[in-house]
Amino acid sequence: MNSTPDTVVPELDTAAPTDTAPGHAPSAVPAGLSTRLYNKDLAPTQRAGRSWSAYSIFTLWANDVHSLGNYAFAIGLFALGLGGWQVLAALGVGAALLFALLNLSGFMGQKTGVPFPVMSRIAFGIHGAQIAALVRGAVAIAWFGIQTYLASVVLRVLLIAVAPGLAPLDEGQILGLSPLGWIAFVGLWVVQVVIVSYGMEMIRKYEAFAGPIILATMLALAVWMFAQAGFEIAWSTDKSLTGGDMWLHILGGGALWVSIYGTFVLNFCDFTRSAKTKGAIVKGNFWGIPVNMLLFGAITVVLAGAQFRINGQIITSPSDIVASIPNTFLLAAASLALLVLTIAVNLMANFVAPTYALTNLFPRRLNFRRAAMVSAVVGLVILPWNLYNNPIVIVYFLGGLGALLGPLFGVIMADYWLIRRGKVNVPALYTEAAAADYHYTKGVNPRAIAALVPAAAVALAIAFIPALSMLSSFAWFFGAGIAAVNYWFIADRTRALTDADGESIAVPSVH
């Protein structure tokens, strides 16, 4: 493999764009770069002034790990017959794998300073990267609407509990929601749009604010339930698994835990592009993934085990416990904490990715703020409650797109770490010059597509063919692994590799 830095880097105007007002695209792009590929929000971030610390990374996970969906998943392991230590073992396996994968993905963002759609150009080409960005964005934008709807259900119940006079507004339907349902949904929708309109720095501040609230709330719920159960819990149900079946479910649970975060390991660079150092990523991930996930697991075991000891029932989510709190004030406080949590999770997991994907698709017309508004409007007009209530849409559309995330990750990781060994010519990610590093064939790398397609076919087969259901827990790994191996064998190793930073075309990290 030739690693001599002889690839031509375009002549660039070293002055960064002068228009730095929040939410506005630069008035011009540096010389030699394409307006189809570059604007202020897609540009690399300057190393000086990056604001995401280890605590910032930790609070991402403090919020996301403790999401209601994750609790439902972990409690489901308890319901399947895994005991307390076995649930912790499954989460521990997943946490160890995630810690490694997220560090690899995060380092890419910290080195280059670019968001995921631009990072995808390295492997797929300057135009082929649209495939990866749009798949990731489509999954996220649908779930943004669905999660906002689920949060609005909590808010609707809270409003009626606090003000029973609102109950008549919860009768009747307009396009599938009651008037109160529309008020709750649109209210939460507006809150999220306002936060995102101020950019990634505001998201960082919100996550930092929400993280301690969520941890304190979940710990308080666990302590309260522990007391309700007489300070004793059931460590397992009557259907405890043993032997090989037990270990299969432990490993399968750990694998599914990674699959749940398949979206995040793909576009983690959207956040770490503003990380101060690699050390901040490792430290934040360490406290946020293995340590925080074991705390999450302990809370899950206490909540599920305490409820099972009380009446032999298994809860489906912490919201079930919140609904049973007899004190209206405490119920309202806990419900508000769950709403703060859901917004935090939605912002990081389902709002940032489609915003960058749309900015990458229309960089001349959309900046971060405008793209966020488009994402939000789409998340509204699709009437997400109808999607959520339609199993065919969830399984085949969102499930099918989700199955493609593993193969995308496999190609991108193999290209960056195994073929290029971390060498990236950042300025060349923004030029359409035919001789540039990432132009490939008309802007698309056919070898990356060739590696992706068979891996995607296998992932989809595992996801949808009943005869392969035994492998479904490991579908993400099959997709990622096959894509990575495919790319390793067919990648072009004759290209010269250039390692050039993007400081000459970078913009401030906070803009």
TrEMBL record:
Q: Which Gene3D superfamilies match?
A: Hydantoin permease (1.10.4160.10)
> Where does the record say this protein resides?
Membrane
Query: Which sequence ranges are marked TM in the entry?
Result: 71-102, 122-144, 149-167, 179-199, 206-227, 247-266, 286-308, 328-349, 370-388, 394-419, 448-468, 474-490
Q: Name one Pfam family in it.
A: Transp_cyt_pur
Region (Disordered) location = 1-26
**Coiled-coil region list:** none
Q: Which domain of life is it from?
A: Bacteria
UniProt key word Chaperone: no
Membrane protein topology class: Multi-pass membrane protein
For this UniProt entry, what is the primary localization, expressed as one broad class? membrane
Alphabetically ordered keywords of this record: Membrane, Transmembrane, Transmembrane helix
Is the keyword Disulfide bond in the record? no
What's this protein's family per the entry?
Belongs to the purine-cytosine permease (2.A.39) family.
- Tell me the protein's name: NCS1 family nucleobase:cation symporter-1
